[in-house]
Amino acid sequence: MTIPSEKPQEIGVVEHHDQPDVPLYFPDRSDPWNTVKPYNFHYIPKSDVPLHNLLRLYHSVHLRSLRPLVPTLALDNQGFEVHRLDTRMKYDDFKNEQLIEQVYVSELERYFTKKLGAKKIRPLDFQLRLRGREFPHFQGKPSARPQPSLMTHVDVTPEATKSIIRELYEGVAEQICESRYQIITVWRPLRVPVRDWPLALCDTSTVDPGDMVENDVIYPNYVAENLMIHYNEGQKWYWLPDQAEDEVLVFKAVDSDTNKNNLMFPF
Question: Are 251 and 185 in contact (CB under 8 A)?
């Protein structure tokens, strides 16, 4: 969820327009990742270790509008969908983590259990992104709040997903790992229409597996692992123009069924 700091513009006619020549950030292919694994800290370490070892390069990409495709989108095809989903939560309610857990997360759990036909849905985490006015220029200092991501990435790797399952489900973890499981992300804007740092999505069928790079994401008490993606001219990127308050982007991070589009690249 991202809250733009500016006052939103008035909602008018939604245009189904593409956006040519949009700069997206990708990891540089020249980094020495055959011998050194990329990483980035999500806190300030006590030592003088650099906060990351990434070299970001931006490439201009053509962002295609999702608007004409919404009725035909499918998680198992393109890897993402657009849902109309109301919530009882008001803007200020999202500043209260207890309300998010008790109300909003419960709403999502009920809705997607029915919508996806899942046997069980277990919420893993949530994050509120409040874009600072100075973003993305913080003069080398980390922001106090999560900001929009500046690197194309997948939230979690398949192997890290198995570790999450084993940690959460313990005795029945191996049984779950032998069945089909997914990690799905739901992205909702809180200030609309979205014209400021919208989310971009890449069609996984256009991604070369050789372009994916595993990356350590380091927190104070644990290390997560996600995937970054090198730029490739064959990739197809999309966005949802003027995303409304009740429109949520739903996309897969991981799908254990390798016959499906099983990874999703958001930015």
Answer: yes
